Amino acid sequence: MVAPALTEIKIPQHLIPLDGRFGSGPSKIRTEQIDAVVRASRNILGTSHRQAPVKNLVGSVLAQLRQLFQLPADWEVVIGNGGASLFWDAATFGLIEHRSAHLVFGEFSSKFAQAAQLAPHLGDPIVIESAPGTVPAIQQADVDTYCLTHNETSTGASMQLSRPALPTEALVVVDGTSAAGGIAWSPTEVDVYYFSPQKGFASEGGTWIALCSPRAVERIKRINNSGRWCPPSLDLSLALENSRANQTYNTPSLSTFVMLNEQLGWMLDNGGLTWCAKRTQESADILYGWATSRAFTDPFVANPQHRSPVVGTIDFVGIDAAQIATVLRNNGIVDTEPYRKLGRNQLRVSMFPAVDPSDVQLLTSSIDYIVEQLS
């Protein structure tokens, strides 16, 4: 029997997810968020970000972030323009005092380490690295900043956040970009938890958000007062000052805050981070349960404890995953392709809170159907 051409494979309608967006960022945006943007077009969009309507919107976002993450009263929510990539550069100026240690286990965790390595005013960082799909163990080091990644978006590996005992004054700075809103964590283990809102919060890129402990705020102020030169756009002390006034240092994307505000309200109305984490875990159980029960698939992350509940990577054996992704896309199921630099025969599936677990179930049924047609 000759396998049909990829364009000829039509997935039965009852197997197709109600929403076919499974991208790991930008991610699925809920219709209610777009409705909020339409409403905001009448009185928010196109108005000054220094005036009350927009400042009230930003204030709502900051307050809801505090509530979602159950932050202690003395923590600060700091915001700025540019995504997590820009925050890496800002951290080399305003958070790392002399030397940092980095856990590297994929593309994005490696980029922060590279930024620290290139900074001429910092000592060479300690880089603790493990192969993609695994998670390295934290090792105590003579540093003032530990730089961790809660969830490695490129590989679908996630780590448990735990503060090293020594040095006692060291900050723990965590990239939570793809984990935020979908994986629980404790403020007692972290000093800075930063992310951009185009993944778990179903908004747009171009904004960074950093949840900062009093220790982190003190570090920002101390470095700022030390005389270290810093471009204003990367100055965390300026970002902190403006955030306290419910604004950003320069003009933000207002639609980003509108969508983020709507998504936060939805999360909180449904039960907060506890509900979100339960929902993502339900999706993950469906995906990994399916992958381990099929002869042609295996979860890329071998250790179940390190398998991400928000970004699942599935290796394929004996069948071209790129062909499956093509057929899925032809049928309106999009962005399941793997991270390009990883170069594996796999699919990558986001399971952020906006993604309905029932759609993950239908996705696996669609893949089963495609494999049957290609066999």
Description of the structure:
By secondary structure, the chain is α/β, with parallel strands linked by helices. The protein folds into two domains: 6-29 and 271-374, Alpha-Beta Complex (Aspartate Aminotransferase, domain 1); 32-268, Type I PLP-dependent aspartate aminotransferase-like (Major domain) (Aspartate Aminotransferase, domain 2), CATH 3.40.640. It has helices at 31-40, 52-69, 84-94, 107-118, 214-225, 236-243, 254-270, 272-292, 321-330, 357-374, and strands at residues 76-81, 100-104, 126-129, 145-149, 151-152, 157-158, 171-175, 192-195, 207-212, 297-299, 311-316, 346-350. It has a seven-stranded mixed β-sheet with strand order 1-9-8-7-4-2-3, with helices on both faces. The chain has a three-stranded antiparallel β-sheet with strand order 10-11-12. Strands 5-6 form a two-stranded antiparallel sheet. The chain is globular. The protein contains ten helices and twelve strands. Helix 1 crosses helix 7, helix 7 packs across helix 8 (272-292) and helix 8 runs parallel beside helix 10 (357-374). It starts with 30 loop residues before the first helix and ends with a helix.
